[in-house]
């Protein structure tokens, strides 16, 4: 059997050819697999390299991740916009702590469970961007407000203000509430202008509530192709919140913050009236973002780097110009995924646990046992079906971060 040392020497000498990571079988035969989970639990990452990992699994390139976090932090600092990053794309306390360490003022969450998780981990100023409309969510939002007075959530309907008022009164709790204003996406937000002001006045008048701020999420702008078109879309979508803020000032209402924005519009939103950013994907990036274009490059969005990949193994190679991989539908395989360093490969699916990689170029090949890394299409969907990030420096695993609060009603 080829020893690990021989394999590494061969790789170093360029004898292994294709950029795919070569057969796990020969490289890692000596690894004590029975100890794998106990080593992870003990954070003993000795000898844990990519080639011993079970696939499909998620890999974070630590250096690229760190660069992305710092790039966004530096941008926010230099332009004077606050960052309250969205956690739905990573669902990881480890990632969130690093964002906070680089200056984020809090976190943004999509579900009450995410907010409970992050607040429970000791992170303050967590903003929940949905209004509680079920008894379950109302009771939990009020309970979280009591445990963590820095927690805040949005409303877009006076009915919800009444519901949470009543629940807060019966539990002697004060709430921090922001008004969600329509910004081009019909999924939420009260109409800008007088209706939004009326709702804000209702919140401000409540004995149980503090009007914490406003939110206006222009989701349609996030993936609009070309920076100039994004800038125009964001400006149009946020016209209503700018008008609302003017009216709020005239009405003597406090405007502590205006939250919204995305990875795609991070360097646009401040000029369009936001005081804080809810961007999330920038930490890892996905293929939905790769092609939207940057301020200086219409074709490629390279402000942030692809720091997250899915490692997969070729587990059948019986047909010309294609191989089968263990990255299938259950692992969120998408035809718009891209293979790292191998743009000649097209990703496809063949079922729950089967994917394909196909190519047309002559002279290309992949072999049984090869491993490749794939950029996923939509982070918030993909991260919800994996349970951990293997954090890598080169080929070495240096940390493991659990992905918490993933799927299922208990997590919502
Ligand atoms: C409410 C909200 N804010 C902000 C974002 C921006 O996230 P990203 O930077 O990942 O596009 C999203 C993403 O869908 C969102 O739903």
Features:
412 residues; alpha/beta; nine-stranded mixed beta sheet; eight-stranded parallel beta sheet; binds pyridoxal-5'-phosphate
Q: Whole-number average pLDDT?
A: 93
Tell me what portion of residues adopts beta-strand conformation. 15-25%
- Measured as a percent range, the helix fraction is 25-40%
Apparent shape: globular
Q: Segments where pLDDT lies below 50 for 5+ residues? A: 1-26
User: What is bound: which ligands?
Assistant: pyridoxal-5'-phosphate
Radius of gyration: 24 Å
What's the SSE blueprint?
Blueprint: H1 4-12, H2 24-27, H3 36-42, E1 57-61, H4 62-79, E2 82-83, H5 93-101, E3 107-109, H6 112-120, E4 126-128, H7 135-147, E5 152-155, H8 158-170, E6 175-180, H9 194-205, E7 209-215, H10 219-222, H11 227-237, H12 239-250, E8 258-260, E9 276-277, H13 287-290, E10 308-319, E11 322-325, E12 338-339, E13 346-351, E14 354-358, E15 371-375, H14 379-382, E16 388-393, E17 396-402
Parallel strand pairs: 1-16, 2-9, 3-4, 4-5, 5-6, 6-7, 7-8, 8-9
Antiparallel strand pairs: 1-10, 10-11, 10-15, 11-14, 12-15, 13-14, 16-17
Helix pairs in contact: 6-7, 7-8
The chain binds pyridoxal-5'-phosphate.
The site of pyridoxal-5'-phosphate has 13 residues, from α10.
């Amino acid at each position: 059997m080829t020893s690990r040392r021989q394999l590494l020497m061969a790789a170093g000498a360029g004898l292994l050819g294709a950029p795919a990571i070569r057969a796990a079988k020969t490289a890692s035969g000596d690894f004590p697999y029975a100890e794998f989970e106990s080593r992870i639990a003990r954070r003993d990452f000795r000898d844990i390299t990519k080639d011993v990992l079970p696939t499909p699994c998620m890999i974070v390139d630590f250096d690229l991740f760190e660069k992305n976090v710092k790039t966004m932090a530096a941008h926010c600092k230099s332009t004077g916009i606050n960052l309250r990053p969205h956690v739905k794309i990573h669902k990881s306390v480890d990632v969130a702590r690093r964002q906070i360490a680089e200056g984020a003022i809090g976190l943004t969450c999509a579900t009450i469970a995410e907010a409970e998780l992050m607040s429970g981990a000791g992170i303050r100023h967590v903003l929940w961007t949905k209004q509680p409309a079920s008894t379950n969510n109302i009771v939990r939002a009020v309970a979280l407000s009591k445990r963590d007075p820095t927690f805040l959530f949005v409303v877009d309907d006076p009915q919800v203000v009444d519901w949470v008022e009543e629940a807060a009164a019966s539990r002697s709790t004060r709430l921090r509430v922001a008004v969600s204003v329509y910004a081009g996406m019909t999924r939420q937000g009260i109409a800008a202008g007088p209706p939004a002001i009326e709702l804000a006045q209702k919140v401000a008048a409540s004995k149980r509530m503090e009007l914490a701020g406003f939110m206006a999420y222009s989701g349609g702008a996030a993936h609009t192709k070309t920076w100039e078109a994004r800038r125009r879309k964001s400006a149009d979508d946020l016209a209503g919140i700018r008008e609302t803020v003017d009216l709020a000032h005239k009405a003597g209402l406090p405007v502590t913050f205006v939250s919204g924005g995305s990875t795609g519009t991070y360097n646009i939103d401040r000029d369009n009236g936001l005081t804080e950013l809810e961007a999330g994907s920038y930490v890892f990036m996905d293929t939905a973002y790769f092609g939207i274009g940057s301020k200086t490059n219409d074709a490629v969005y390279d402000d942030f780097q692809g720091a997250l990949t899915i490692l997969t193994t070729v587990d059948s190679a019986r047909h010309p110009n294609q191989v089968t991989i263990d990255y299938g539908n259950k692992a969120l395989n998408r035809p718009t995924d891209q293979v790292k360093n191998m743009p000649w490969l097209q990703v496809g699916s063949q079922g729950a646990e089967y994917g394909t990689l196909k190519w047309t170029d002559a002279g290309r090949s992949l072999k049984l046992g090869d491993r490749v890394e794939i950029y996923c299409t939509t982070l918030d969907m993909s991260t919800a079906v994996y349970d951990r990030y293997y954090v890598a420096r080169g080929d070495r695993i240096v940390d493991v971060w659990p992905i918490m609060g993933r799927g299922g009603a208990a997590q919502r």
